[in-house]
């Protein structure tokens, strides 16, 4: 008996690991991509939207791409992490030679509202960038909180952060938006750095994928070279971290994760801005604090290779 695929809107700031998340989505028949909504983060929003359009063409996807927030809700945009994702946001691979269409009609947060209302109870929002679009959607239409199947977020850090000692990038990029999204009464799953830093695609695995994993494997190796070099330089890692892929795998292979249920607050002021911390209150978040990282990386490789 085949089960209907889960409907997903991917809110994203591509981004090298965002590109890997799209590769994974393409491979999974149990996930149906309804729309790609873009946000600033790994680059400015014009660049992340161009990257989403480029990835859609490169990977043969058909979902619409809707441009979203260019800046946080209430503060200036921080500097883009070009030392991690490259000047073009996709590891400085060659993006020339493709005629890209303009983005699809409709702003990201409007389309999120329309699609959630069109498929009540069925849409999972997967946010792998700053949470500005989700917060704007909630502000415009608070009823969507009761209409989503769930909200899965790559973000937060309960141990060490990655942009400051306290904060993870997606939350740090728009702490006010994150605070609103985490305070709303919808079912949120947070996949924080504490888990994602264990999800490493090693250099050996990436080269094996390029050899045995068809076009998807070759693309995964190509797009991750600069990103892996940055992780080697800054973290001493052999390989690159599958942050955004982990958010999607939490939907398809939840048994790889260990959850904790507790309310989460976001600090919005001072040097700890963007920090996530356990809080009091009665709207618990499902926080996936632990993961079997090697199994997740292996699962990712098998999924993208077998789809080609
Ligand atoms: C998150 O920040 C971005 O740089 C990555 O794409 C990921 O979504 C990791 O902190
Ligand atoms: Ca991202």
UniProtKB/TrEMBL annotation:
Domain of life of the organism encoding this protein: Bacteria
UniProt xrefs under Pfam families: IU_nuc_hydro
Membrane spanning residue stretches: none
Domain Inosine/uridine-preferring nucleoside hydrolase: 8-296
SUPFAM superfamilies assigned to the protein according to its UniProt record, in alphabetical order: Nucleoside hydrolase (SSF53590)
Keyword Hydrolase: yes
GO function term, MF aspect, one: hydrolase activity
Keyword Hydrolase attributed: yes
CDD domains per UniProt: nuc_hydro_CaPnhB
Matches recorded under Gene3D superfamilies: Ribonucleoside hydrolase-like
Record's keyword terms, sorted: Glycosidase, Hydrolase
Full protein name: Nucleoside hydrolase
Origin species: Caulobacter segnis
């Amino acid at each position: 008996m085949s089960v209907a695929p889960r409907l997903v809107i991917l809110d994203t700031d591509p981004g090298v690991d965002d590109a890997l998340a799209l590769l994974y989505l393409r491979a999974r028949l149990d996930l149906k991509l309804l729309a790609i909504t873009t946000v600033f983060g790994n680059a400015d929003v014009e660049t992340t939207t161009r990257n989403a359009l480029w990835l859609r063409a490169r990977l043969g996807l058909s979902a619409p791409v809707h441009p979203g927030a260019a800046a946080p809700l209430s503060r200036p945009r921080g500097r883009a992490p070009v030392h991690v994702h490259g000047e073009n946001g996709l590891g400085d691979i060659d993006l020339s030679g493709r005629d890209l269409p303009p983005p699809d009609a409709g702003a990201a947060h409007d389309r999120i509202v329309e699609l959630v209302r069109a498929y009540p109870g069925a849409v999972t929002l997967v946010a792998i960038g700053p949470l500005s679009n989700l917060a704007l959607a909630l502000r415009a239409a608070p009823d969507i909180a009761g209409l989503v199947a769930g909200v899965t977020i790559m973000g937060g850090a309960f141990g060490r952060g990655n942009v400051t000692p306290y904060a993870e990038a997606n939350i740090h990029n728009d702490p006010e938006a994150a605070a609103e999204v985490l305070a709303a009464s919808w079912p949120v799953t947070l996949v924080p750095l504490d888990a994602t830093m264990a999800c490493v695609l090693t250099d050996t695995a990436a080269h094996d994928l390029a050899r045995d994993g068809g076009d998807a494997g070759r693309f995964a190796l190509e797009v991750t070279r600069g990103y892996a070099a940055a992780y080697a330089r800054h973290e001493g890692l052999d390989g690159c971290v599958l942050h955004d892929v982990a958010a999607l795998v939490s939907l398809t292979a939840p048994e790889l994760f260990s959850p904790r249920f507790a309310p989460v607050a976001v600090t919005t002021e001072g040097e700890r801005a963007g920090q996530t911390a356990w809080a009091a209150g009665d709207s618990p978040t499902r926080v996936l604090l632990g993961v079997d990282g090697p199994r997740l990386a292996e699962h990712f490789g098998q999924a993208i290779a077998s789809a080609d």
